[in-house]
Design goal:
Blueprint lengths: L8 E2 L5 H4 L19 H4 L1 H14 L3 E3 L7 H4 L8 H15 L7 E6 L13 H18 L3 E7 L2 H18 L5 E5 L13 H8 L6 E5 L8 H10 L3 E5 L6 E3 L2 E3 L4 H15 L3 E2 L7 H10 L13
Parallel strand pairs: 1-10, 2-3, 3-4, 4-5, 5-6, 6-7, 7-10
Antiparallel strand pairs: 8-9
Length: about 300
């Protein structure tokens, strides 16, 4: 069965917060502390093991460790010349983790970067060029779909999507493209756009899915997912944090237990017709296992979409 034929897709859990829990040797960072993507080259065993733990927990799709693997972000670490190498190895690492496990897929993760065009941090042309280079590398490595995620600025989102589709057209390829925006607790994206503006802006693109990830837990996503359920005709994705982050004794913690997380996600699937689920910050293999178990044999609820 291909990815597009799957009625319900379970994605993996967090990358960064899980890597933070590991005893990774300082030398592995190669002077690039905070750049998780460099580990694809310097300590691939940690990345492979993390992916494998997610597959074994029941994830059908893992996202490559390439969230910040575009030239704009990598330049902050002096790694702008390693875009192709990092993205290629990231896909290889994910494929190695899936070895021997049938029905598993790899999504090429494309994050928003650290500079937003609407805030004047970066020119659209530079952002587009960075995205094209990363997408080309991911395609050459053989990913199954592309995930433009954690989008904080609609101009950034549109720029990335245009670049993605330009590369796909040039390569003569058709792959599922998923877009996922981040809605802050106050109810809008970082630059102020609400979910209605998101839908209106992205409706012209031939997206496989549109949804939300990061920033909050499932509870604070309810109204936005409900809006998409009523107005977005394609698939909906929901990939929340392990609850709303809290600071306890100077440390960021996420409150939802695996069972609590899975139950809230079950409601999204059965009541709102969400068909792509997974976990963002804080979510562990235990959360994905609980999610996959709770959704075993479950079909997304029917939706009546008004345009």
């Amino acid at each position: 069965m291909t990815l597009t034929e799957c009625e319900l897709l379970v994605f993996d859990g967090a990358c960064g917060t899980n890597l933070q829990q590991l005893d990774i040797p300082q030398a592995a960072w190669d002077g690039c502390d905070g750049c998780n993507e460099i580990l694809n080259l310097t300590a691939p065993e940690f990345i492979i093991d993390l992916h494998k733990s997610m597959y074994q927990a029941g994830a059908m799709v893992v996202e490559t460790d390439t969230f910040g693997a575009g030239s704009v972000v990598l330049a902050e670490y002096g790694l702008q010349d390693k875009v192709k190498e990092i993205n290629r190895r990231a896909v290889e690492n994910a494929r190695m983790a899936a070895d021997g496990i049938a029905g598993r897929f790899v999504a090429g993760s494309i994050g928003p970067g650290t500079k937003l065009p609407s805030l004047g941090h970066i020119e659209v042309a530079e952002l587009a060029a960075s995205t094209r280079e990363q997408v080309e590398a991911l395609l050459e490595a053989g990913i199954d779909c592309l995930m433009v995620e954690t989008c904080q600025d609609l101009l950034q989102t549109k720029t990335a999507l245009v670049a993605v589709y330009e590369v796909l057209e040039s390569a003569g390829l058709e792959l599922p493209v998923l877009a996922s925006v981040t809605i802050e607790q106050q109810g809008t994206m970082l630059v102020g756009s609400d979910i209605a503006a998101v839908l209106a802006t992205l409706e012209p693109y031939p997206l496989f899915s549109l949804g939300l990830n990061c920033a909050t837990g499932p509870q604070d996503m309810r109204s936005h997912i409900h809006y998409l359920s009523q107005h977005w005709p394609q698939r909906i994705s929901c990939i929340p944090n392990q609850g709303l982050p809290e600071v306890v004794a100077g440390q960021t913690v996420y409150p939802l237990t695996p069972v609590e997380f899975a139950e809230q996600m079950y409601q999204f699937v059965t009541e709102q017709g969400v068909s792509i689920v997974g976990g963002c910050c804080g979510t562990s293999p235990a959360h994905i296992k609980a999610l996959a178990t709770r959704l075993a044999g479950v079909s997304p609820g029917q939706r009546e979409v008004s345009r």
